[in-house]
Q: What sequence folds into this?
């Protein structure tokens, strides 16, 4: 039996924050020493940050990353650890992991499969390293091996094991490097990852970790990034340690600290009996194979009784991870962490929200309340304040209600078309979350702008012929005031647009789209409504629900921009949100044509809606989607939540000018006349 204490750390890093990233890594290395860990897995590109984007193409970024790597070496005595960083080899940039053992750099493993779908554009910055190939790179006066490497670890007693890397996307590939690493003698595989949060991805990661450990017969260590690293993507901080197909340890998700730390003890001899050894099994006896980099004299392997006394740092798996409402829980926790990091990393002093009394703005302010409750529960009140910046107003707060007043200002902005229902709803939601709430009317501004336009045009504006323009000016008149509040408070103005509105442009540019961040831009309206109902009645595991939300959930969504007699609702203007989501899913994620979308809708929704209505809605969606791409180019950054989103800067690119699906919509109409848009 050869027991080894191993660890994984999830870190909350920031691109190009060289000193901050280094110091957070040092803190983790100190944890490893304290815990008696000998082999440590860190996230992908942990030194530079994963989200450096086009600055990966700057040679200075590599030079600085290597400087930081050198600064980390003294902290690795008695440890084997991989540090992720960009590395230039023969003038091409690679996603690399530097293997450091006992204070000495021994070489670089390079990523073989690059993520290039969905959110990822790795092929823009990196080259994929060919399987089975090795080379060398000169750093200073020394040559180091690079490429598809297996590192042999030999302790002071002459016992050895071998270690290799699958770097994030490598493990998602059908031809995983892990199988080849195992054939070359690897008994430990480390997976440094930067795998974004989205619904259902957590269990997929866990499955490939377990399957990798079973199929390859290895101890498998997986460490993901944590938090909102670069603005649009949230990382849940997943860490797994598995051996022989069994989960040895699982780390905490959605932590609010700089890092989480997960450890386990693994038996390296299990790998010998769990798989057929390959032809170069001599690696295990300490004889390097041609594809092996030898790492001499690293760490002593303690006796089993020593390991048994080691203090466990692993958090218990929370009940909410197996709850039926896990998507609701994940949404709340991911959004809360994303907002927490965005506010503190942007040096914002809290947030300002235009609270309309409707679902979207109510969700945003509830998420800010949950941000405070979850972070306070995780960190403690004083540590939460310090991490958020602890500016004067926040520093003076002594409890959560006072902190909410410092962190969040909400404003209800009425016009002559606003109702007492939404005004009352906004007030009750503001009271429930504890924001500093104000009300004012923008009707004078709307009337002034209308009079100016009528004078310039020489004619009156009417609802019969100027409907959209008269709606839009009300939304735009609300923008300057909330921007002013945000500027005065040095706070982050949050836009409340959701993905369903983004798809069809059902939001006023420079009006309700105003803001520096749109937290809901990556999630659909139907989900938002269900989540709000859940928060009203059930709420997060361990936290109280918010019953005051009933005043919102009982309303039909409405922009309230037409005169009250029009009885305006969002779904009457557009279509049922459940149908809109299915059309959007078919077009964006599945690549269906409008005709194929219609056929699928008839099968899925034909018992609820007529074929004529479904045809009208597909036609309307395609028209509005192509017409409003320019708006999607200008929306504030949003958080990725679902399997896809519409942000052209991070996921779905569509031409600003296009044919507008004219030919495709003609096919829809061949079955009969349509009412169009």
A:
């Amino acid at each position: 039996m050869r027991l080894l204490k191993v660890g994984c750390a999830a870190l909350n890093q920031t691109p190009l924050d060289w000193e901050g990233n280094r110091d957070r890594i040092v803190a983790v290395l100190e944890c490893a020493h304290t815990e008696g860990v000998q082999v440590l897995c860190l996230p992908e590109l942990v030194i530079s940050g994963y989200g450096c984007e086009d600055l990966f193409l700057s040679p200075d970024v590599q030079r600085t990353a290597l400087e930081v790597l050198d600064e980390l070496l003294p902290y690795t005595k008695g440890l084997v650890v991989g540090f992720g960083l960009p590395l230039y080899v023969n003038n091409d940039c690679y996603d690399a992991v530097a293997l450091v053992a006992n204070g000495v750099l021994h070489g670089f493993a390079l990523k073989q499969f690059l993520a290039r779908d969905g959110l990822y554009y790795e092929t823009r910055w990196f080259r994929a390293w060919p399987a089975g190939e090795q080379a060398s790179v000169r750093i200073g006066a020394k040559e180091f091996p690079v490429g598809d490497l297996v590192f042999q670890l030999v302790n002071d007693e002459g016992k050895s094991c071998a270690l290799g890397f699958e770097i994030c996307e490598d493990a998602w590939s059908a031809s995983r490097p892990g199988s080849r690493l195992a054939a070359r003698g690897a008994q430990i595989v480390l997976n440094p990852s930067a795998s974004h949060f989205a619904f259902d991805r957590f269990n997929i990661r866990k499955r490939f970790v377990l399957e990798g450990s079973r199929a390859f017969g290895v101890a498998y260590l997986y460490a993901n990034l944590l938090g909102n690293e670069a603005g649009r993507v949230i990382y849940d901080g997943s860490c797994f340690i598995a051996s022989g197909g069994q989960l040895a340890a699982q780390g905490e998700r959605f932590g609010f600290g700089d890092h989480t730390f997960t450890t386990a003890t693994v038996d390296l001899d299990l790998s010998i009996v769990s798989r057929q050894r390959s032809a170069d099994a001599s690696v295990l006896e300490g004889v390097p194979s041609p594809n092996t980099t030898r790492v001499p004299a690293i760490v002593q392997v303690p006796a089993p009784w020593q390991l048994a006394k080691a203090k466990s740092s692993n958090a218990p798996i929370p009940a909410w991870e197996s709850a039926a409402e896990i998507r609701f829980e994940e949404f709340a926790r991911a959004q809360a962490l994303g907002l927490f990091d965005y506010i503190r990393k942007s040096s914002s002093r809290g947030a300002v929200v235009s609270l309309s009394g409707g679902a979207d703005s109510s969700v945003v302010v509830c998420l800010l309340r949950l941000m405070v409750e979850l972070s306070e529960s995780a960190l403690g009140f004083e540590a939460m304040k310090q991490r958020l910046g602890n500016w004067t107003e926040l520093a003076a707060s002594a409890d959560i209600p006072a902190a909410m007043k410092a962190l969040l200002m909400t404003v209800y902005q009425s016009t002559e078309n606003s109702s007492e229902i939404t005004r009352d709803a906004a007030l009750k939601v503001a009271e429930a979350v504890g924001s500093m709430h104000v009300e004012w009317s923008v009707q004078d501004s709307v009337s002034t702008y209308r009079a100016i336009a009528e004078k310039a045009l020489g004619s009156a504006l009417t609802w019969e012929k100027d409907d959209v323009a008269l709606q839009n000016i009300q939304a735009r008149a609300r923008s300057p005031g909330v921007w002013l509040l945000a500027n005065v408070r040095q706070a982050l103005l949050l836009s409340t647009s959701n993905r369903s509105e983004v798809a069809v442009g059902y939001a006023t540019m420079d009006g309700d789209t105003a803001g520096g961040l749109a937290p809901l831009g990556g999630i659909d309206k139907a989900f938002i409504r269900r989540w709000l109902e859940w928060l009203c009645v059930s709420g997060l595991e361990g936290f109280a629900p918010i019953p005051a939300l009933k005043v919102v959930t009982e309303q039909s969504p409405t922009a309230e921009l037409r005169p009250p007699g029009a009885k305006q609702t969002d779904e009457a203007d557009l279509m049922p949100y459940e149908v809109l989501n299915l059309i959007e899913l078919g077009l964006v994620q599945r690549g269906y044509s409008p005709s194929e979308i219609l056929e699928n809708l008839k099968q899925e929704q034909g018992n609820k809606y007529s074929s004529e209505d479904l045809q009208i809605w597909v036609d309307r969606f395609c028209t509005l989607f192509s017409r409003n791409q320019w708006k999607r180019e200008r929306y504030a950054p949003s958080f990725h939540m679902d399997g896809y989103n519409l942000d052209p800067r991070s996921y779905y690119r569509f031409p600003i000018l296009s044919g507008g699906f004219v030919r495709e919509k003609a096919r829809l109409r061949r079955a009969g006349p349509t009412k169009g848009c």
Observations:
- Confidence is low (pLDDT under 50) at residues 275-290, 296-313.
- The longest strand covers residues 80-89.
- The radius of gyration is 28 Å.
- Residues 339 and 476 are 25 Å apart (CA to CA).
